Amino acid sequence: DVQATRATHLCLAVGAGWRRVACMAATKNNIIWFRKGLRLHDNPALLEACKDAAHVYPIFILDPFFLQQSSYKVSVNRYNFLLESLKDLDASFRSRGSRLLVLRGKPEEVLPRVFQEWGVHKLCFEMDTEPYARTRDARVRQLAEEAGVEVHAAVSHTLYDTDMLVARNGGSPPLTMQAFCRLVERVGEPLPPAPDPPAQLPPLPPLPPPATTSGEEGEEQGRQRPSADPAVTGVPTWQEVGFKEAPVTIFRGGETEALRRLDASFSDPSWVASFQKPDTDPAAFERPATTVLSPYLKFGCLSPRLFHARLLAVYRAHPRHSQPPVSLRAQLLWREFFYTVGAHTPNFHRMSGNPLCKQVPWQDDPELLAAWREARTGYPWIDAIMTQLRQWGWVHHLARHSVACFLTRGDLWVSWERGMEVFEEHLIDQDHYLNAGNWMWLSASAFFNAYFRVYSPVSFGKKYDPEGKYIRKFLPVLKDMPSRYIYEPWTAPLAVQRAAGCLVGRDYPAPVVQHAEVSKRNIARMAEAYRANKSSDADPDEATPAAASSAAVTGRGRKSGTSAAATTSAAAAAGAAVSAPSATTSSRRQGQSRSSRQASAQAEPEAAGTSAVGQTRGSAGGRKRQRTIAEALGATTAGKAARGAGE
DNA sequence: TGATAGTTGTGTAC
DNA sequence: GTACACAACTATCA
């Protein structure tokens, strides 16, 4: 396949040859179906659609799945980025004698209709390995076959065909970046970008004459317009799609902008050659410290192979360039790594049923999750990042690390799946496998396991930005707080808070947890979760806490050997623990079996630790618990902070 | 099976 | 600036 694709590239690369091929037998009506890959450059599916074509229908289908599913949310920022990308694509087609048709509906319903209406010979699209896309495309292939339509799918969203990479690795994906890089070395360089499409593309056929006049639009009531009618195939606005709030991100979608941004990044080749990701500044916002090409890669406005080819050209001129895993090229390889592992791991975007993912008894705490999501944790560094996420739909990689660690193993002990969902909604570069993979990484659930390396919500940002410029930008309520206090405003004397116009507890929240305490306790919880996973690996009959409890709900455990008895008793114990008063669970737990003890850890994790730390310290496990203790003892960390604020 | 190395932590002591 | 504790991890490969 790779060789065939390479041959196609070479053949099409010869301009005259291309024209001859196109003119020899231009009799077919083909579709190029855009989903991702919203570009003309390096688009082998488009070139394939143009072969032998009398007419090419460039289509995009607005799939209600991406708007209506309650489990899948998309912010107006990202949706509008998509619409801008479609507008740009349409403009590119128009300058080449065609235009983009934006169809509405489920692809499984829209495509069979147009196959028939347009007399389609061939359907071409870019391969997409995400779970939803795979199911959709399998169904579409079947429908195409029933309609006698040829299907051509091209690999161009990733540098390599990830199936090929896995095959070359002996049938399973490498699980470390180092092993992945060695594999890529063995396989060799990716294909060069496909040649640009010709200046004139096979046009759309002329529309049939309008129906006899009936009203201004010349269309009888109830009569279906042709699917290619320009009146019903334009790119909609975000209002037309149904969003109420206007997009606010500073980033514009589209291939034109992607290539402009790529050129801007490469305008300083020595910066490109010496790039080292861990050294970049997460607090830089006037000029972000990285390329911000991720949203363009996500939608395929930019080809990863073009980016890669440009990098190799710079590296040839700068022999002492940086190397994986920190180089700029390595950032493309990280993307490739997560695509490869993700596409070959069942339930990659979930904890339960995911063989790579540590089963950790995270705590379901809607209040703490909401505080994190809504940028009111009381930690300015965290809240500034979450604000930037909402406003720009993009934050620096290390800023993502900060908030992901804070939500999960660092502070709030909320499942990485909840964080992933919030990112999925707001990121304009949201990318299924990258998002899941990185959340597992940061929560020390897979790939990364140094769970005691915890980001401080105070020190980490301060290291880069001691004046707090980033915080002042995204949290204007703190703009006049002296630098000395801006990362910990609750420590500012009341007079200082007054002078800054920001009283903690009134104008800006007090911290929802005390980092020093909860991070220490959570490290112990992680140690316990790791032990539980290890023992369940050694003894597959014994369910891990989360596996046991999720198995009770889903009927599936992490291991196929999870015993029904353990599952049942675990579920029962989980239910009991939920309703038990927290003051009594500690003693009650001592009488439980191991598996039910683990299940109660899942239901009520603040009592889960078996270490001294876990059992004796409970003052900062979450908002609800803090309040309970505050009532009993009259002094909590949050309470102290609130009094510090003058309440 | 044992050695090795791993994109990106923090706080403290020296 | 450097070393160490934190608390002991794991995929890979020779």
Could you write a compact summary of the structure shown?
With 647 residues, the chain is mainly alpha-helical.
Give a structural overview.
The protein has 647 residues and is mainly alpha-helical. It folds into 2 domains: 2-157 and 223-233, Rossmann fold; 158-187 and 252-647, DNA Cyclobutane Dipyrimidine Photolyase, subunit A, domain 3, CATH 1.10.579. Helices cover 51% and strands 5% of the residues. The chain has 32 helices and 5 strands. The protein has a 5-stranded parallel β-sheet, with helices on both faces. Helix 7 links the parallel strand 4 (122-126) and strand 5. Helix 6 (107-118) runs parallel beside helix 7. The model is unreliable at 1-23, 215-220 and 542-647 (pLDDT under 50). It binds a DNA duplex (14 and 14 nucleotides) through helix 9, helix 15, helix 18 and helix 25.
